[in-house]
Amino acid sequence: MKANIYIDYETIPKVNLENFNNERFNLFIIGNALSVIDPEFTKYIDAHENMKFYNSKNKDHNSLLFLLCTLIGEHNITENPDTQFIIVSKNRNLSDVIKFMKYKSRKCRRLEDINITAIEHSLNINNTKEHLDKENIDLENVKKVLSKIKSNKRPRKINAIKSYIANLFKDYSNKDEIAMQVYAQLKRENFLIESANNNIVYNTDNLIENTLTYNSN
Length: 217
Known about the structure:
Blueprint: E1 3-8, E2 25-31, H1 39-46, E3 51-55, H2 61-78, E4 84-88, H3 95-103, E5 108-111, H4 116-130, H5 139-148, H6 158-168, H7 175-188, E6 192-194, E7 200-202
Parallel strand pairs: 1-2, 1-4, 2-3, 4-5
Antiparallel strand pairs: 6-7
Helix pairs in contact: 6-7
């Protein structure tokens, strides 16, 4: 998974570019007419395809933020759906663009300093979720959740039960794939039995009648 990192150069003027010489990062630094740029800094950026410097041309901070938000809007259309968007700025008036990106089902957040460790940790967590396989799935918890549903409220169609299971893994980018794996395993264990007309029968002998809470995080 990649991360697009947008740096407000007016409030975050010190950036160690070497930290971002990594194929997982796209770095966008946005300055304004008052930004003082070291020639070596510019030279390093020009030598790396994953780094770009933008100048808003105007002196006020609002024009810098407008350019930053414009870039994010453009990249929302062109970037891979799994790309994270990270804004590094001390300006707290960016909540609207973050809300908009989350509305678009994008992972987007703001940091107040360049914390490369936090960024890498976030990417590693999401990579783990993306590559989740059946050995990492807690089937017993899924069974417990299904067993707690009153009999007359349980999903009774194949597609309905798959959608229900996928919702348990809503924080995972490949939740539908996980749901397919879980559903197949529950069938193998005879926890769920397919009957006529795509109906599902729950094997009550295998139901776990306790009230442990399921946590999908």
